[in-house]
Amino acid sequence: MRHPKVLTSVLATALGLGLAASLGAAPAVAAPAPTGVPAAGNTAVAYAGSAEEAKANQAFFDAVVKSVAKKRAAAPGAAAVTVVYSAANAPSFRSQISRSTQIWNSSVANVRLVEGSNPDFRYYEGNDSRGSYASTDGHGSGYIFLDYRQNQQYNSTRVTAHETGHVLGLPDHYSGPCSELMSGGGPGTSCQNAQPNSQERSRVDQLWRNGLASAFKS
Predict the structure, then answer these.
(1) pLDDT at residue number 136
(2) Is residue 83 within 8 Å of 123, Cβ to Cβ?
(3) Residue 32: CB atoms within 10 Å
C-alpha cells in the first residue's frame, strides 16, 4: 500500500508523524523479515508503483494459486478454494489480520482464507521504507509485509485488507476513491474504508471461479 506521487524517502518521513496512532508504539525488536526484505534504514529509492509493482503482485497471486494447486487432492469436492495463511510472524497485527480475513470471507464466495499450518502465504511485520507490500520470495512462496509506521498513519485494517487483496489477485489502483479498497494510500490518511467494493468482490469471485477449476484440474 505504497503512497503514490512521492518518493519513498519522503513517505517514510511523513509516516513517522503518526507513531502515536492506532497501534501504539512499535515493538522494540521486530520479527525477522523474510528473505529479500531489506532492513529498515536501507537507502530509499524513488517510488516505482507501475509495472514493477504490478508484476510483483501478479507473481504473488500466481505463487498462492500454485501452492493451493499442490494441495488440491486434500479436498477434491470443495465448493471454494481454501487459502491458508500464517500470522505467526506478525503478532502485533493479529487483530487486523483477523478482521481482514473476516471482511474477505464475508465478501466473496469462491475463495476462503483460513489460518493454519502448511500456509500458502505468511504475514510479516517490521520497518521498511517501502511501506507495506505483498511479494514472493522467488521460490513459489508468498508473503505480506506490514510496515509499522505506515500502519500508524493509515487505517491499519484497510492496509491489511488491501495487501490481502493482492493475495486474491487484485492490482493496485491508487487513483481510485476511498470506497475502492485497492486505491490503497491514494485517497490519503483520512480514508477509513476497509471493505472491498462490489466490483472488487466480483473480480475476486471471477478469478477464483477460474482458479478453482485450475486448482482441481488433473
Answers:
(1) 73
(2) no
(3) 10
User: To 10 degrees, the CA torsion angle through 25, 29, 32, 37?
Assistant: 60
Instruction: Give the phi and the psi of residue 61 in degrees, each rounded to 5.
Output: -60, -45
Q: 26: pLDDT confidence band, cut at 50, 70 and 90? A: very low
Across the range 52-67, mean pLDDT stands at: 74
Percent of the chain with pLDDT over 90: 49
Please enumerate in sequence order all residues whose Cβ is within 8 A of that of 183, keeping only pairs 6 or more positions apart, or say none.
Answer: 173, 174, 175, 176, 177, 191
Q: Which one of the listed residues 53, 125, 163, 180 is annotated catalytic?
A: 163
Which three-class secondary structure state does DSSP give residue 128?
coil
Three-class SS state of 143: strand
Angle between helices 51-70 and 156-167 (to 10 degrees): 70
| 163 catalytic per annotation | yes
- pTM equals 0.72
